Automatic annotation (TrEMBL):
Binding locations of heme: C448
The protein, known as: Uncharacterized protein
Domain of life: Eukaryota
Transmembrane segment boundaries: 7-25
Top-level taxonomy: Eukaryota, Viridiplantae, Streptophyta, Embryophyta, Tracheophyta
InterPro entries (alphabetical): Cyt_P450, Cyt_P450_E_grp-I, Cyt_P450_sf
Source species of the chain: Arabis alpina
Keyword Iron: yes
Any GO MF annotation of the entry: oxidoreductase activity, acting on paired donors, with incorporation or reduction of molecular oxygen
């Protein structure tokens, strides 16, 4: 019993000293040019952070609204200072103007390194540059876009629509979020790996790769909400609790993806040369990449594409149940295109649907925040001084809620805010919006290479589903937004599916 008693005594003394220090320091806190919550010597803002750690999105947003520069500082015990900004000039400076001074940085790559390894979304410098060039080339090819569209069309017509039709016929309640996640995982695995997990067969158990990805993504994301990073790092060293479950999930992901890579490589080696080689994995192998490098690359692309589009579509389908006039306008746009056969070219005409998707992601961005780490001392455009090693976070969730950026009606779901009308034009034209005001796909050199493919997928699904079915939520409660690596609805979106009368 001596060790626990000594520990408790030491902790009590330290706590008493912290309280005394905070009392004496509260009246003499120096004024700074950057807004921050109550902060004390030694412990920084850890008390406020810990109090609000389960509502960080709302807390950060509240603080940012109070800040004249739309930038705040969060000093924490044992961690470098975190700077959070919703200022578009700062975002442009971080993501573009002084891009090389704001890499991901080791503290960030530590969070996801166990899962993503040295894949494109978790590296900097030459490794990132070489992977980026390869990915940009492949995503710009007509052959990959055509292949991705055919995969998308097949998955919608032969799996997603039949699943929704069955639910409509039997009157079953279903979790639309779960269905869309399964759908998106099927699509991204087919495009990235040339492998079909068949997750929309609801009669089968959850695919072990999907289950492992979900577990690994959730625990990796929760590392970032620990007020003291040493906590999760110690748990990892001891291999206990959540870190033990994370290690097991990551092992499953790595083993299963490595098996797919080996099988793909073998099939390419013994192929006759007639094989299409259309998926990303085949293309990477053909470019000479092998082993862990190609494994990490495809894991990164699966992670980026598996839940982002499904999250945006889930929130849009819910918002449409609350905004009947918007749904009617989407149908007016979609119905003529569907009657002609919703093809690749027809998707380009779905500007109102795209505006609805943008408005959805403004309010409910699939990635709520993203962080970089300063390589050297710097000064942001709003005058915020950055020290080497500081974590600098741009905050899409908060940016979508700033009156200074979107007006007093920022709370309202208004797709029309995305349009300009050209003189004499009957059809409204989508207006250009700075990616540094709306950075849901990042911006600058790291802008998402799959952005256009994501819009293609979302427009096709929304058009195909809404033209056939009505989505009716079982509950009228406001869904809860949960950030993690990719945001989702707590508890899913439980709905009834009804066929439209004209179908």
């Amino acid at each position: 019993m001596e060790i626990p008693i000594t520990f408790l005594l030491s902790f009590s003394i330290l706590s008493f000293l912290i309280i005394i220090i905070s009392l004496f320091s509260s009246s003499s806190t120096k004024k700074t040019t950057i807004y921050e919550p109550p902060s004390y010597p030694l412990i920084g803002s850890i008390l406020s952070f810990n109090k609000n750690r389960h509502r960080l999105l709302q807390w950060y947003t509240e603080l940012l609204r109070l800040s004249p520069t739309q930038t705040i500082s969060i000093p924490l015990l044992g961690n470098r200072r975190t700077i959070v900004t919703t200022n578009p000039e700062n975002v442009e400076y971080i993501l573009k103007t002084n891009f090389f001074n704001f890499p991901k940085g080791k503290p960030f790559t530590d969070l996801l390194g166990d899962l993503l390894g040295k894949g494109i979304f978790n590296v900097d410098g030459h490794s990132w540059s070489s992977q980026r060039k390869l990915a940009s080339h492949e995503f710009s090819t007509r052959s990959l876009r055509s292949f991705a569209f055919e995969v998308l069309k097949d998955e919608v017509e032969t799996r997603l629509v039949p699943v929704l039709s069955t639910a409509a016929d039997v009157g079953a309640t279903m979790d639309l979020q779960d269905v869309l996640k399964r759908f998106a995982f099927d699509v991204v695995c087919k495009v990235s790996l040339g492998w079909d997990p068949d997750c929309l067969d609801l009669s089968r158990p959850v695919n072990p790769l999907l289950e492992a990805f979900d577990t690994a993504a959730e625990i990796s994301a929760r590392r970032a909400t620990e007020p003291v990073y040493a906590v999760w790092k110690m748990k990892r060293v001891l291999n206990v609790g959540s870190e033990r479950r994370l290690r097991e999930a990551i092992k499953t992901v790595h083993v299963l993806v490595s098996e797919i890579v080996r099988a793909k490589k073998k099939s390419l080696e013994i192929g006759t040369g007639v094989e299409a080689k259309q998926d990303l994995l085949s293309r990477f192998l053909a470019a000479g990449h092998d082993g862990e490098a190609v494994r990490d690359m495809v894991i990164s692309f699966i992670m980026a594409g598996r839940d982002t589009t499904s999250a945006a579509m889930t929130w849009l389908f819910w918002l449409l149940t609350e905004n009947g006039e918007v749904e009617r306008k989407i149908l007016e746009e979609v119905d003529p295109l569907v009657s002609l056969g919703l093809g690749f070219e027809e998707l380009k005409d779905m500007s109102y649907t795209k505006a609805c998707l943008c408005e959805t992601m403004r309010l409910y961005p699939p990635v709520s925040w993203d962080s970089k780490h300063a390589a050297n001392d710097d000064v942001l455009p709003d005058g915020t001084r950055v020290k080497r090693g500081d974590k600098v976070t741009y905050f899409p969730y908060g940016m979508g809620r700033m009156e200074t950026l979107w007006g007093k009606d920022w709370e309202q779901f208004k797709p029309n805010r995305w349009f300009d009308s050209e003189p004499g034009s009957i059809r409204p034209v989508l207006k250009p919006v700075s990616p540094f005001k709306f950075p849901v796909f990042q911006a600058g050199p790291r802008v998402c290479v799959g952005k256009e493919m994501a819009f293609m997928q979302m427009k096709y699904v929304v058009g195909s589903v809404l033209s056939r079915f009505e989505i009716v939520p079982v509950k009228k409660d406001q869904p809860v937004f949960v950030p993690l690596l990719t945001a989702h609805m707590a508890g899913g979106l439980m709905v009834k599916i009804k066929r439209r009368s004209q179908c």
